[in-house]
Design goal:
The chain is of the alpha/beta class. Helices cover 38% and strands 13% of the residues. It has twelve helices and ten strands.
């Protein structure tokens, strides 16, 4: 077993100028296999062929070997350069390029070639755009629907910087799951997620339900950043107040020495305890493991989500 090494491509000045932070040695339960399979290589070829970006690569996801071997890739639209500089994220920050009008068709073609029954589409933050990229999200959804009508679609969106009407455009495109991550507890926002506001993100998810009560909503947080258990439980309560259906909890892993440090590695037993507590609070399903990420096992989780809703309605 080896630990997957994150990308070391140059990053933007904001992160390059941050002081180095300690890097804790990963425990055994965090270690993953390096990506070496033929299926992994084929997934990578299809992504490259269509000129696409994936959060799997850009964010240095530890699950890339497993997911790409199963031909599951999370599409990251609107380029690979983000307008924000979150302290936990390995995506590059800077001035993004103009939107690629061919991207919706290219994403749909890749989804078809990969044979995806369920696809996750995410993006960088595009605060430079009048609608934060909402219309582009809608066009990608429409492109996939036209080419792969049986594929279910999950979006993981930014907060659109509170731009009027942006959220409504994405919801009107009818994704099957609307995901927006709170990422961490409120007390950490100024340091970890300085460009966002906790209660705006919470309100955005609540608004999705107001616009379409049948749409599944999903959100996630990272742990290991120094949060307390009580803070995590309060986030769960806040999410349930916003009627969020699906909660993900995963271990924060430090991409480089320039990023926020890992304060603690949460044990598998503690993750299981969080899962039991969250289910008792009314979430339809919960994924809480050290390697849980927003799109990890998203296809099977979507099936679980539908089954859980049906069971709750009986």
């Amino acid at each position: 077993m080896v630990t997957l090494i994150d990308n070391t491509k140059p990053r933007h000045p904001e992160k390059a100028n941050r002081p180095d932070t300690p890097v804790l040695r990963k425990p055994d339960w965090i270690r993953v296999k390096a990506p070496v399979s033929a299926e992994y290589a084929e997934t990578r070829r299809i992504v490259r062929e269509h000129g696409l970006h994936t959060v799997c690569e850009e964010a240095g996801c530890p699950n890339i070997g497993e997911c790409w071997t199963q031909r599951h890739a999370t599409m990251m639209i609107m380029g690979a350069i983000c307008t924000r500089a979150c302290a936990f994220c390995n995506v590059a920050t800077g001035l993004p390029k103009p939107l690629d009008t061919a991207e919706p068709g290219n994403v749909a073609a890749a989804v078809e070639k990969l044979g995806l029954a369920h696809v996750v589409v995410t993006s960088v933050d595009r605060d430079d755009l009048p609608d934060g990229g909402a219309q582009h999200f809608a066009e990608v959804i429409q492109g996939i629907r036209a080419r792969c009508p049986s594929t279910t679609i999950e979006v993981l969106t930014p907060d659109f910087l509170r731009k009027p009407g942006a959220l409504e455009v994405v919801v009107a495109a009818r994704p099957d799951v609307f995901n927006h991550n709170l990422e961490t507890v409120p007390s950490h926002y100024l340091k970890i997620r300085p460009g966002a506001r906790y209660f705006h993100s919470l309100r955005l998810l609540q608004r999705v339900k107001e616009l379409d009560a049948t749409m599944f909503t999903k959100s996630g947080i990272m742990v290991g950043l120094g949060e307390t258990r009580d803070e995590v439980l309060q986030v769960m309560d806040d999410m349930r107040s916003a009627e969020i259906d699906f909660l993900t909890i995963g271990q924060y892993l430090q991409p480089t020495r320039k990023h926020a440090e890992v304060k603690a590695f949460i044990t598998p037993d503690e993750f299981k305890a969080y899962e039991r507590t969250a289910l008792s609070k009314g979430f339809l399903i919960v994924s809480s493991t050290p390697l849980t990420r927003s799109s990890y096992h998203a296809d099977t989780d979507f099936a679980r989500l539908k089954a859980a809703r049906l069971a709750s309605q009986r």
